[in-house]
Amino acid sequence: MSAKPEQTVHRYFAGLAENTFSSELGVVDPPLIDYVSDLLVRFIRSDVVHRIRGVTGRPLMSITEMLSEAKERIGDARRELYRHVGDFTLFWAGVYPEALRSNSPCHDQFSEYCAHGKLSYQIASQIDVENPDRLDEALLFERLSNQFELCCYGLREVRRHWEEDQDGPNHVILIG
Question: Directed axis angle between helix 75-95 and helix 30-42, to 10°?
């Protein structure tokens, strides 16, 4: 029995992330590496990338909209939205940084994404930390904030490897 496409993609990204972060970058943090590889799998689907909706039900497409909405939410909903902003910015700044580069010297979208991502993970790490079931996740979000640039670099390296790999996710049926 062959693996489902989702399982194949997950194993592929998990292997690339583990090799890149552990072997090449010297990052020995299995929960962080697992989180980054899961992020790649989750963000294959565009409906996940833009899953956050405002009060009108319209998808929130910009970081400004997402952050504004996060300030209005409380508890788990607030934490989840800040986490999503961190994930969204990490994905774009890490995997597709060229999409954030601007021809204008006055507007550096890449730096903005990194700043918002770091801050969002930091805020997410501080929400509901008194809950002992959430401590590991809070510590992980704190590490993602502190190591945001390193994670971006690691994701760029993961992308470079998958682009060089003839059997990579470009040749796997991706989830639509």
Answer: 80
Residue 50 has pLDDT above 70, yes or no: no
Of 76, 77, 86, 75, nearest in space to 54 by CA: 77
- Which of these, 2, 165, 108, 31, lies nearest to 39 by C-alpha position? 31
- Is residue 150 situated within a structural domain? yes
How many CA within 13 A on the CB side of residue 166? 0
Q: Tell me, yes or no, whether 176 lies in a domain.
A: no
pTM of the model: 0.86
Q: Structural domain of residue 150, as residue ranges?
A: 5-171
Please tell me the total count of domains within the chain.
1
* Mean pLDDT comparison of 16-30, 130-144, 156-170, highest-scoring range: 16-30
- Quote the tokens at residue 22: 């552990």
